Automatic annotation (TrEMBL):
InterPro entries: Beta_CA_cladeB (IPR045066), Carbonic_anhydrase (IPR001765), Carbonic_anhydrase_CS (IPR015892), Carbonic_anhydrase_sf (IPR036874)
Lineage per the UniProt record: Bacteria, Pseudomonadati, Pseudomonadota, Betaproteobacteria, Burkholderiales
Record SUPFAM superfamilies: beta-carbonic anhydrase, cab
Protein source organism: Duganella fentianensis
One of the record's GO molecular function terms: carbonate dehydratase activity
Cofactors (names): Zn(2+)
Biological process (GO), any one: carbon utilization
Protein name in UniProt: Carbonic anhydrase
Cofactor binding summary note: Binds 1 zinc ion per subunit.
EC number from the UniProt entry: 4.2.1.1
């Protein structure tokens, strides 16, 4: 019950903020949406795209799935994800796509350390097959490293896989080549509270917003 009350009170605050205090914004949104950005993030409750980016309604077109994956463009690709990408790119003509990965991703843990499930379905492992090529490579190349290091490497590598897979959609590739669409790979390090971005030039994830200085111990 407590959570439900929190959500209802939250809606009241949202109503106040946007329907009363920002009437102009919602008046324009009633006419339609024109988001500049498609963000593909994880379902993880700790990684909320709007909260993390300080976005307002209408700013982000969001697709969330386990481990923020983009399947390659094939006839058998998950239409749930592909249709959202198609709509954002072809109809809304977004200017950028951000793949937002994160630390401690349960989906990545599932593909790196698969467990047999004792229930009627296994949709998680079925979906995570999209990331299997990078998981295999990480397991092979970093076999001597700890599982935490392997998971971290797979979290980053899966963002790059999704960026590569985006380019298999022909209409998306055309817009990138025409300079109309930019692709970004971001990583939220929720352990350190930092945001990293992939630099193609440096082949590395570099800090976009670094972590805060060490918190002072109030008792000290
Ligand atoms: Zn995740």
């Amino acid at each position: 019950m407590e959570d439900i009350e929190k959500f209802i009170n939250g809606f009241s605050r949202f109503q106040q903020q946007y329907f009363q205090d920002s009437q102009a914004l919602f008046d324009s949104l009633r006419e339609g949406q024109r988001p500049s950005t498609l963000l593909i993030g994880c379902c993880d409750s700790r990684v909320d795209p709007m909260l993390l980016t300080g976005s307002d309604p209408g700013d982000l077109f969001v697709v969330r799935n386990i481990a923020n994956l983009v399947p390659a463009c094939t006839p058998t690709a998950s239409a749930g994800v592909s249709s959202a990408i198609e709509f954002a790119v072809c109809e809304l003509e977004v200017e950028r796509i951000i793949i937002l990965g994160h630390a401690r991703c349960g989906g990545i843990r599932a593909v790196m350390s698969p467990r047999k499930v004792e229930r009627e379905t296994d949709f998680v492992n079925q979906w995570m097959r999209v990331a299997e090529p990078v998981a295999e490579r990480v397991r092979r190349d970093l076999a001597h490293r700890s599982s935490a290091e392997q998971h971290h490497a797979c979290e980053l590598a899966s963002i790059l896989l999704s960026l590569d897979n985006l380019m298999t959609y022909p209409w998306l590739k055309r817009r990138v080549e025409q300079g109309l669409l930019k692709l970004h790979g971001w990583y939220f390090d929720l352990e350190k509270g930092a945001l990293m971005a992939y630099s193609a030039r440096q082949h590395a994830f570099l800090p976009l917003v670094g972590s805060l200085p060490e918190r002072q111990d109030a008792a000290a």
